[in-house]
Specification:
11-stranded mixed sheet, about 35% helix, 2 domains, globular, Peroxisomal Thiolase, Chain A, domain 1, alpha/beta, about 350 residues, about 20% strand, 12 helices
Length: about 350
């Protein structure tokens, strides 16, 4: 069954939430963590509720509401969300109170709000959606697992509208821990330097990307033609073979693909995989060097590809290698997290 993206919304470190200046890069600043450009949440959430919500929940609710608005849908028939980190800030609050209060007289609120399903649950509660609601926590596969479930749900219910998203937040405490183990850089860097001078460690980031999926092609951004995941490939040749096999299943070769959206992030351990596999002569589009690294960043990569297939103009900062000027008819989103979780998503123009 054909599945189409009917509405999209993304909150990132770029101007991706506002459709009027979508993909207009912000001025460069040397950073170790790229802060998201958060919208005015009062347009989506009551002010009294905003102050009780953590950043990740607010981002999720706003992105979900905007995607529904973009698709002209009041309520989804199901909600599937992928998140690897979940509600980090609420988890930190609860653990800090345990230490400060010596595990006595603890209120359960912070613990309840720290569970991963809080994001999807709050989206459903605020919208009054009593339908299917599930959160997937599969590390680097979190968003793709939620997307896979959405495709399966639509195969059973072609007339439904599914809200699918990938959402994660970063906190100073978690950033410091991951810097200590070498996942993120400790020295500030300009986004443009990340790809010119790859070193060990990426720049931290977070964000929320949501899309409305349906079986109706009218007014859609793009068709999701295929999805494939594989983990821990033994070599670059194995990875390339996986890509070739996936494309062959859809009647394509690498030369037929109009562009590949990849998650290069300035970490030489991460980016070397892309450089070892991708051939010359293919248009290559990046995004993590301007949004930061986080496990569900591929959700934004998918939204980016959908926008480009509908005619959005790509800023020069996002195109890493331009092989041609034609309007893309198909794009491959290839994302990997720590060279362990690899995902391939094929999108086609409607």
């Amino acid at each position: 069954m054909a599945v189409y993206i009917k509405g999209i919304a993304s909150i990132t470190a770029q101007h991706t939430f506002n459709q009027d200046n979508w993909l207009q890069p912000v001025p460069e600043t040397a950073l170790t963590c790229m802060p998201t450009i958060e919208p005015d949440y009062k347009a989506f959430i009551a002010p009294m509720q905003i102050r009780r919500m953590s950043k990740v929940v607010k981002m999720g609710v706003a992105a979900a509401s905007k995607a529904l608005e973009d698709a002209h849908i009041a309520l989804p028939d199901a909600i599937t969300i992928g998140t690897a980190y979940g509600c980090l800030n609420d988890t930190e609050v609860f653990l800090s109170r345990m230490l400060d209060q010596q595990e006595e007289m603890l209120t359960p609120t912070a613990f309840i709000q720290s569970t991963h399903n809080t994001i999807a649950g709050q989206i459903a509660l605020l919208m009054g959606c009593n339908a299917h609601n599930l959160t997937y926590v599969q590390r680097g596969f979190s968003f793709e697992t939620a997307l896979l479930e959405s495709l399966l749900l639509l195969a059973e219910n072609p007339d439904h509208y599914i809200l699918c998203g990938g959402i994660d937040e970063m906190t100073p405490t978690v950033q410091a821990i991951l810097q200590r183990v070498g996942a993120y850089r400790t020295e500030p860097a300009l986004p443009s330097q990340l790809l010119q001078q790859p070193l060990q460690g990426a720049i931290a980031g977070d964000g929320a990307s949501c899309m409305i999926l349906a079986g109706d092609a009218r007014g859609a951004y793009a068709e999701i033609a295929g999805l494939h995941t594989f983990n821990k490939p033994a070599s670059a040749d194995v990875t390339l073979a996986q890509i070739h096999t996936f494309l062959e299943q859809h009647g394509l070769t690498l030369e037929d693909v109009d562009g590949i959206v990849i998650g290069v992030n300035g970490d030489e351990r991460n980016d070397s995989v892309y450089h070892d596999v991708l051939p010359e002569g293919v248009t290559i589009i990046g995004y993590k060097h301007l949004t930061g690294e986080y496990p569900t960043a591929s959700a934004f990569g998918t939204v980016l590809a959908a926008q480009l297939l509908k005619g959005a103009v790509l800023p020069a900062e996002w195109c890493l290698h331009k092989a041609h000027d034609r309007q893309p008819q198909n794009l491959l989103v290839w994302h990997h997290y720590k060279n362990y979780y690899h995902t391939l998503t094929l999108l086609k123009a409607c």
